[in-house]
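Service request form, structural biology core

Requester: graduate student, group of Dr. S.
Request type: structure prediction, single chain
Budget code: on file
Notes: please return the result as structure tokens.

Sequence provided:
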Amino acid sequence: MKKNFSILIIASMLLQQVSIALQVDSMQKQDYKIHNENKMKKYQSLARKSTYEEASIFKNVEKVSSIIDIEKINIIDMQAETKSMIARNIIKNSKRAVEWITVEGIVGGQILFDFETGTIEDTQDSITIANIPSEINGVQVSSIGDIAFSHCFSLTEITLPETVSFIGKFAFWDCESVTKIKIPDGVNFISDGTFKGCINLKEIKIPDSVSFIGYEAFYECDSLTEIIIPDSINSIGDSAFRWCYSLKEINIPNSVRSIGDRAFEECRSLIEITIPDSVNSIGAWTFFYCESLTKIKIPDSVSSIDDWAFHGCKNLKEINIPDSVSFIGNEAFYGCRSLKEITIPNSIISIGDKAFSWCESLIEITIPDSVSSIGYDTFDGCNNLETIYYSGTTEGWNALETDIPERVNVSIIFKK
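Core staff response, request fulfilled:
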């Protein structure tokens, strides 16, 4: 029996509150659409657990009573990209030949397969093994859809055929029991959140076909100890390896041009990392609380060290700042307790608030007269600071109005 609805998308934004109303046209019961309860639960969970700074919570989502008996979804205050993904999938699946089927090699549940595109759109959470064939009923498997295997908590084994060239966003999110996976050679990029929350993932091979690693791609992969990034990679997205607590070693090739904010935040086992000459900036929070990091070489190509870049790197003993860097952000080296000395090059014009606060082992620092501003509490907690070498004049130093705590007994030596 057919049920007719009109397709209507109305998007409006007011004070960060966005409402999307969707009504789906000509839906038939035999068509297994994205509006089933399983998919909606995944979307709701994605919204609740999203780490976007904006509010990303489903508010007022109508209860799904059956596969097709959903007339309207109201989504308010959700991050724009997440909303777009949901809307896109709802529309995309409303007119396709998709079907829940049992597939040999996939154990523990069914998959929702699109016979027109060769895409696995969804899966039942009960799946334990996913040895995905290259063809299903004569149709080549070409892609894994957004959120397709997310929350398959009991999934222990995944084999992807070489026919797969695309893996969607959050495709294997929270597959907590998976220990290893091989990405097919034809995949061009690792999408946002693809392996997010795969807390037992210990081994992964990234092929040379991949050009970039997306936002939160390996976020909270607690068990990853090492990862080799191929020379084909040119970009590492925001939070890509955030909270990979066991990651000890990572090789960043010269092909990488940008490293996103929070890319290695709280990689607490990371001991040493070399940033290639191809990178031009170190983003905010990039190495935030990388507590085991002892040294790092910043290449001459880097022009800025952004806010909180090395905040809390308490074992960082050695760092070079090249002449290419023009400013040091707020709290960039806050809490780097093991730093004993640091030389700021003549290229620096600005030092942010609390940039060196609580660098408790810092004994001396050299500041050039190129610096035109030093933020507040820059040396707060630097209780062992003895000497500041300033390459300018007394007048120049006084003009900076540097806030040195009274408890810090420091000598300022002028070179002019």
